[in-house]
Model the fold of this input.
Amino acid sequence: MERYNPEKIEEKWQKKWEKSSLNKAEDFSKKPKKYILVEFPYPSGDGLHVGHVRSYSALDAVSRKKRMEGYNVLYPIGYDAFGLPTENYAIKTGIHPTKATEENIQIFKKQLKRLGLSFDWDREINTTDPKYYKWTQWIFLQLYKKGLAYQDEIPINWCPSCKIGLANEEVIDGKCERCKTETEQKKKKQWMLKITEYAEKLLQDIKDLDYSEKIKIQQINWIGKSEGTIIEFEIPKNESAKVFTTRADTIFGVTALVLAPEHKIIQELKEKAENKKEVEEYIKQAKKKTELERTDLEKEKTGVPLKGIYAINPINKKEIPVWIGDYVVATYGGGAVMVVPAHDKRDYEFAKKYNIEIKRVIKPKEEKQLEGQAYTDYGILVNSEKFNNLPSKKAIKEITEYLEKNNKGKKETNYHLRDWVFSRQHYWGEPIPIIHCEKCGIVPVPEKDLPVELPYVEKYKPTDTGESPLANIKEWVNTRCPKCQGPAKRETDTMPNWAGSSWYFLRYCDPHNKEEFANYEKLEYWMPVDWYNGGMEHTTLHLLYSRFWHKFLYDQKLVPTKEPYLKRRSHGMVLAPDGRKMSKSFGNVINPDEVIKGYGADSLRLYEMFMGPFEEAISWSTEGLEGCYRFLKKAWYSLKENIKKESTKEITQKLHQTIKKITEDIE
Ligand code: ANZ
Ligand code: ZN
Done:
C-alpha cells in the first residue's frame, strides 16, 4: 500500500496552486477584499527561523480561509533588506552587500515556497531595489517640503566599534545592541523627522483600532503624554529657569532647583559660582554617560550645588539653592526640575544624600504616613498658606491659575516621544536625497532625478571621523547644485533601516508602478490593512513610525485612510527546547529546513499553530511536532481507506459540525 509521503503530496499541491493562480490578488475585483499582512523578513545569511514560520503560517491560515469564504485576498511578502548585519557581513567577507542581499533573498524565497505559504509572488518587493527606494526618497522629500525633516546638532549614541550613530532603542543597558560595546555620546549634525508633531493624533486614533491591549498600552506609554504646569523660577541677576511639573500642588514644598548639566544658563551661572572648578568637573563627567545611565531609576542620583546662587520660589518668594544634577533630562520640559523631597521618591533620595531640606506639604486623606520615605500620592494641602486644606487636584488647578495671573506659569502638555533621528553613518541604506550647496545651502534633489542611487564601490568601511563611508567616494559626493549649477556636495548620511518598512504595505497595493509610489485608486481598493501580524519588539518603533508616515501621507491626500492597519496582533517567540532564546552560540537552533525534511511542511506548520496560545512565548517540542505528524498521517490513511465509501447522515452531520467549529476557531 501507498505510504504517507509529505514531500510528494506537498510538491504536487504547491504546483497545482501555482498553476491555477490560487493566491493571486486581483485589483478592483468585484469580490470583497481582505488585506492580510505579516512583517516582511530581513534576509539574513541564517535563513528562515521557526519564529517566522509561526507568524506566516497563522496568517496564511487566515488568508486561505478568507479565500474559501469568497474574499479577494492580498497576502504579500517582500524583503526589508537594508541594514547593518549585511553591511558588517560585507566588511568581514568582502562580498558586496548587493550580492549578499541577492543571495540571501534567494535562500529565503526557496524556503518560503517550500513551506507552501500562499503569498502572491507577483507582488514581491525588496527595499534595497532602486525602483523601490526611489519612492522612499520621494516620501522623504515630501516630509522635507512640509518642514517635517530638518537638521539638528544633537548628541547621538555613538558606538566606537561599529562607528555608527545609534537610536536610543538600539542602545541596551548603555551598550550597542549589535556588538555590545559601550556607547559614548557624540555631537553630530543629524537629519531628524518631526514625529512629535503627530504625537496627539497617534495617541487619539489608537482608541478606535483593534490592536491587542498590550500593544495599545505600549504605544500610549511610548508617546507619554503628560499634563502639568510650566513654572518660572527667577534667579536674581541672571536669566530665570523654567520647570515642568505634574504636581503644582507641591510647590510650597520645593526646597531646591536642579538644572540639567546641558542647561543653557549654566555657562553663565558657573562663572559666578563659588565652586566653579567642581561644577566644571561634574559637567565633564556627565557628558560621558548615556541618557539611560543618567535617568535609570535604580541608579544613585548625583549632583553638585552652584554655591552662592539662589532661585526664588514664585509662590512665596522664598530663596532656594540651585543645583546641577544629571538625572534631569535637558530636552524634556524646561530641562530643570523643582525638587520636592517630601513627595517625590527621587527627590527624597537626592535630598537625603545631600542634606537638602525636606518640607511636607501634602497630607494623606487618612493619616497613616510612614516615616523615612516620600508620600507620593494625592492628598490634602498643608503648610501651603492660602491653599491649605485643598485636595491635590483642585490645588493643581488653583495654583496654576494663580501663577498664570502673576505671569509665572501656565498649563502645559508634554510628550515623552522624541523626534526620530533619521541619519545613519553607514553605507547600506537609502541615500538621503539632499545636496549641500556653498551658496544655496540645503537643496533637495529634484524629484525627476530620483532615485539617488548608492554608488557601487569596493570600500564601505565607515570612516573613523564618524562620516558615512559615502563621504570617501569623491566622484559621487561632488556634484552640481540643482539651483545655481555651482559646485555642491551630496548628503552622505543614509536613512535608518526603519525607512523602507514605513510604507511598504502601500507598495504591495501597486508594486510595479513607475509613475508614483502607488496608484490612489488601487490604494482605495486595498487599504487599510485588515489584519497585521508582527513581533512585540516592533510595537513602539516600526508601528509608530509607519503610522506617522501614513498619517502624513493622508494629510497630503496621497493615501485614502488615516490609519494603515485596522487590526494588529503579535505572535509570541518560539524558544528552544531548553526554554532559552534560540541562538547559534547556545547551539540550540531548530532549523525549519531539517524539520521539513523529516516531517514535511504541513507537520511543521500544523505544529506551530497548535504549540500554544498564539501571543505567548513557547518552547519547541519535538514530541509535539511528532504528534502533529501522526495526526496528519492518520487523517491521510483514513481518507485513503474511506474515500469511496458512501456517506451517511451521521458523517454529513459531523462534517458540518466540523466546518462550523473550525470556521469560528481559526479567527
Ligand atoms: C515636582 C514634583 C513633585 C514632581 C512631586 C513629581 C512629584 P512626567 O509624568 O514624566 O511628565 N521632571 C520634569 N522635567 C524633568 C526633566 N527634564 N528631567 C527629569 N525629570 C523631570 O513627569 C513629570 C515630573 O518629572 C515632574 O513633576 C518633575 O518632577 C519631573 F511630588 O515636579 B515633578
Ligand atoms: Zn546652489
